[in-house]
Design brief:
single chain, 738 residues, alpha/beta, five-stranded parallel beta sheet, extended, Cysteine--tRNA ligase, cytoplasmic, aminoacyl-trna synthetase, protein biosynthesis
Length: 738
């Protein structure tokens, strides 16, 4: 009987298939395993909306958007993303109250003399505050405010004292009112803040800034959350949450407020306090910052059993918004809002909780404690993701340092894609320095990969029939394809490693370099690059950038090219016409070269260099190859044109300088040639005092006879000059110079 032919053995794997890993609450990076198959429940701490969103916010929200897209679009998880808006907060209350009181003050149209007097009165407590401030950034900011106010206060005071006309005084008063707005608002709040009681006053400010925040997120191409929760809409749920924490024995009522009992919780066998940052437990500065400026007065602090305890519910003081509760009129603490809202939407346990690095303690540690106290579990969050800090050119971002950059400021200088590329090129969990160097690297990365896309598109536009697109593979194609799969595997490993986009982007850059080398080698041999292989590589890179949120739309290759304010695919519409124009120009150039019509060639160059760049079109002429047509951002082309012009001007300047230097050297050489050797040393009377009949020095300036060694050196110079002068005399005789 015929033997069965054995199948070859399965090859041994060199390493285990990579799996997605993430850092758990225990700080150990391990395989990412959601609680319910491919479904991921994710809660993210959103903004406190009382001012413009800045690059610190962008650091978190762009990074989380990248992570979310990678989980959804690359690893194919079903992500349910919930985010909150903090619209009840000590900062919001104080800012809203001050804005309201300042607007009331302005509406009363106070006389210049009253404005002057009120500012002078407000300066007294301000100067006390300035003297007591120890934080250098805050002190610098207050000093700047003081300087601005005093610079305009003096002129108004002088005008009022001499009884100047209203036409002169009024503008000075208005200028003082503007410069002293913060100072006056603070003073008005101290005098009248307790009289502001209408809850609606405290909702105007956060509603406005929330709208601005959403506009910023849309401009940054950040996906909206699946659910958005506002603290003001969840007060009943928060009250119920606090009530159960108290019932479970982990909270206590004190003077109308409710506090979390950290000692009781930490002493329980089922729980531990400070899981995320245990070394920070007891950090009073951090704890007080978490409680808020309006909640750290001596009477409030005395209500606690321990300084480590924190507010779940705050009894409202005059001038603060309030809601009914079993403990009287009050408002939510900061930490409790996330626990109650996340619990309402996601239940007793979530897979991922995200926030900035600075939220680890006390915010997230306190969230964990009160949530596990409510649910009586020890797994409220499976994985915490904390984005790294953002610095500005190596410094902490601060208004006092004048480096406070809003998202709108950043988008005025760079595109949303460039900002996202900058974030992708750095680890999401490490400090990111937002600087000119960082952004220039992102711009160059974008330009580098875009040029590859444009080159591939040009290859694909070459006419061919359906069978012509299938071309024979040689060693170059086989090698590029092998490298392509190696780079794909490297990108996959990087994304599995806690979503390491930095390494992934570098591997993608290396793949582009290999593609460029392949195209260049083919063109240098007058061969057409393999269409399908390049299309496969470019489509993969496009898909990855789409996964990262750096490309929108459904175009198969490259960055979208759209008309201004339009959603149409500009490239698909205009490229056929541009190709016809390019072919016509190439035919005209060929005829002009054959007939040596210089003027026509110059017009063809002008079309390429001057006219088409203004329209966002780049033509690239290659000797012996068809002209390449590329659609590129108009500003980029104009910048390239200016840089090219500067390079040419610099080249011309250096050429002129070299010619001038050469001319000067020739003049100097000629002048030297004219000197007879008998005269060359006689002019150096500071060195020599006696000479022989041929003009050769025999004694130095002090009358001492020149040594044999020195004589030998001088003789070499003398002989060289003798030859040089002889050449000059021969040149004169032949009529070469005079």
């Amino acid at each position: 009987m015929k033997k069965d032919t054995p199948w070859p053995n399965k090859p041994a794997q060199s390493q285990a298939e990579p799996v997605l890993t993430a850092a758990s609450c225990s700080h150990v990076q391990d395989e990412f395993v959601p609680q319910n198959g491919k479904q991921v429940l994710w809660y993210c701490c959103g903004p406190t909306v009382y001012d413009a969103s800045h690059m610190g916010h962008a650091r978190s929200y762009i990074s989380f958007d990248i992570l979310r897209r990678v989980l959804m679009n690359y690893f194919k998880y079903d992500v349910f993303y919930c985010m909150n808006i903090t619209d009840i907060d000590d900062k919001i209350i104080k800012r809203a109250r001050q804005n309201h009181l300042f607007e009331q003050y302005r509406e009363k149209k106070p006389a210049p003399a009253q404005i002057l007097g009120d500012v002078q009165t407000a300066l007294k407590p301000f100067l006390v505050k300035l003297a007591e401030t120890t934080d250098p950034d805050k002190k610098q900011m207050l000093e700047r405010l003081h300087a601005a106010v005093t610079s305009v206060l003096g002129p108004l005071q002088e005008a009022v004292q001499r009884g100047a006309a209203a036409i002169e005084v009024a503008p000075k008063a208005e200028m003082l009112l503007e410069e002293a707005k913060d100072l006056l608002s603070d003073w008005l709040d101290s005098q009248l803040g307790s009289q502001v009681t209408e809850n609606s006053i405290f909702s105007i400010l956060p509603k406005y800034w929330e709208g601005e925040y959403h506009q910023d997120m849309e401009a940054l191409n950040i996906l909206p959350p699946d659910v958005l929760t506002r603290v003001s809409e969840y007060v009943p749920e928060i009250v119920a949450f606090v009530k159960k924490v108290v019932e479970n024995g982990y909270g206590y009522v004190s003077n109308g407020s409710v506090y979390f009992d950290t000692a009781q919780f930490g002493g329980s066998e089922k729980h531990s306090y400070g899981k995320l940052v245990p070394e920070a437990v007891g950090d009073q500065k951090a704890l007080q910052e978490g409680e808020g400026d309006l909640s750290i007065s001596a009477d409030r602090l005395s209500e606690k059993r321990s300084q480590n305890d924190f507010a779940l519910w705050k009894a409202s003081k005059p001038g603060e918004p309030s809601w009914d509760s079993p403990w009287g009129k009050g408002r939510p603490g900061w930490h409790i809002e996330c626990s109650a809202m996340a619990g309402s939407i996601l239940g007793e346990s979530m897979d991922i909780h995200g926030g900035g690095f600075d939220l680890r303690f006390p915010h997230h540690d306190n969230e964990l404690a009160q949530s596990e106290a409510y649910f009586e579990n020890d797994h409220w969050v499976r994985y915490f993701l904390h984005t790294g800090h953002l610095t500005i050119a190596g410094c902490k971002m601060s208004k006092s340092l004048k480096n406070f950059i809003t998202i709108k400021d950043a988008l005025a200088k760079h595109t949303a894609r460039q900002l996202r590329l900058a974030f992708l090129m750095h680890s999401w969990k490490d400090t990111l320095d937002y600087s000119n160097n960082t952004m220039e690297s992102a711009i160059q990365y974008e330009k580098f990969i875009n040029e590859f896309f444009l080159n591939v598109k040009d290859v694909l536009r070459a006419p061919t029939d359906i069978t012509g697109q299938y071309e024979k593979w040689d060693s170059q194609e086989i090698e590029l394809n092998k490298s392509f799969y190696e780079k794909k595997a490297a990108v996959h490993r990087a994304l599995c490693d806690n979503v390491d986009t930095r390494t992934a982007m570098e591997e993608m850059r290396a793949l582009v370099s290999l593609g460029n080398t392949y195209i260049a080698a083919k063109k240098s041999n007058r061969q057409a690059p393999n269409r399908m292989l390049l299309q496969t590589v470019a489509a993969y890179l496009t898909d990855m950038l789409r996964v990262f949120g750096a490309i929108d739309g459904v175009q198969p290759i490259g960055f979208p090219v759209v008309g201004s304010g339009q959603n149409m695919d500009l490239e698909a519409i205009v490229m056929p016409y541009l190709s016809v124009l390019s072919d016509f120009r190439e035919t005209v150039r060929k005829i002009a070269r054959e007939n040596k019509v210089t003027e026509v060639l110059q017009l063809c160059d002008a079309l390429r260099d001057d006219t088409l760049p203004e329209l966002g079109v780049r033509l690239e002429d290659h000797e012996g190859l068809p002209t390449v047509v590329k659609l590129v951002d108009r500003e980029t082309l104009l910048k390239e044109r200016e840089e090219k012009k500067q390079v040419e001007e610099e080249k011309k300047r250096k050429k002129e300088e070299a010619a001038q230097e050469k001319q000067e050297q020739e003049v100097a050489k000629l002048a030297k040639m004219k000197i007879p050797p008998s005269e060359m040393f006689r002019s150096e009377m500071d060195k020599y005092s006696k000479f022989d009949d041929s003009g050769f020095p025999t004694h130095d300036a002090e009358g001492k006879e020149i040594s044999k060694g020195q004589t030998k050196k001088l003789k070499k110079l003398y002989d060289a000059q003798e030859k040089l002068h002889k050449d000059y005399l021969e040149m004169v005789q032949s009529g070469g110079s005079s």
